[in-house]
Amino acid sequence: MNTVVNSVRLLGNLGKDPVIKSFTNGSKIANCTLATPHVSKDKDGNKVEETDWHLIVIRGKMAEVAEKYLTKGSQIAVEGSLRSRKYNDSDGNEKYITEVIVSDMQMLGGKKDK
Predict the structure, then answer these.
(1) Whole-number average pLDDT of the chain
(2) Which range marks the domain in which residue 48 is found?
(3) What pLDDT band is residue 35 in, cutting at 50, 70 and 90?
(4) Which of 45, 74, 90, 92 has the CB geometry, 3.0–4.6 Å to 70, for a possible disulfide?
(5) pTM recorded for the entire structure
């Protein structure tokens, strides 16, 4: 198989309100964290609940929807691709980050009051 696929689908809850960046051309980007909990068993057979955290980037019209309707705790389903990038922190140390670049988003549950 020679096909390469970079695709991710997640369903979870926002860990905080989206952070919105607006640009001079009117476009927006929403950055947020998405929690996806899962349950497994430890070596003694006891349930262990863990949560994975994902950095989510939402662009364009979907960012406007996120700004208007999403708040901490909102449940959403997203589809997109993984992107890794490098940056320098405030101390000048090189860091790497992996983000989900959202191509499709569905809000689950009702509208949250802001």
Answers:
(1) 92
(2) 8-108
(3) very high
(4) 74
(5) 0.83
Q: How far apart are CA 99 and CA 10, in angstroms?
A: 12
The structural domain count of the chain equals 1
Asked if 56 contacts 70 with a C-beta cutoff of 8 angstroms, the reply is no
- pLDDT tens-digit series, residues 63-86: 999 999 999 999 999 999 999 999
Inside any domain, residue 113 = no
Q: Is the dihedral of CA 87, 89, 92, 97 positive or negative?
A: negative
Q: How confident is the model at residue 110 (pLDDT cuts 50, 70, 90)?
A: low
**Residue 86 within a domain:** yes
Contact 78, 33 (CB under 8 A): no
Q: Return phi, psi of residue 68, to 5°.
A: -80, -35
CATH of the domain at 53: 2.40.50.140
What letter represents residue 111's amino acid?
A: K
Q: Is 104 among the domain residues? A: yes
Place of tokens 């983000």: 99
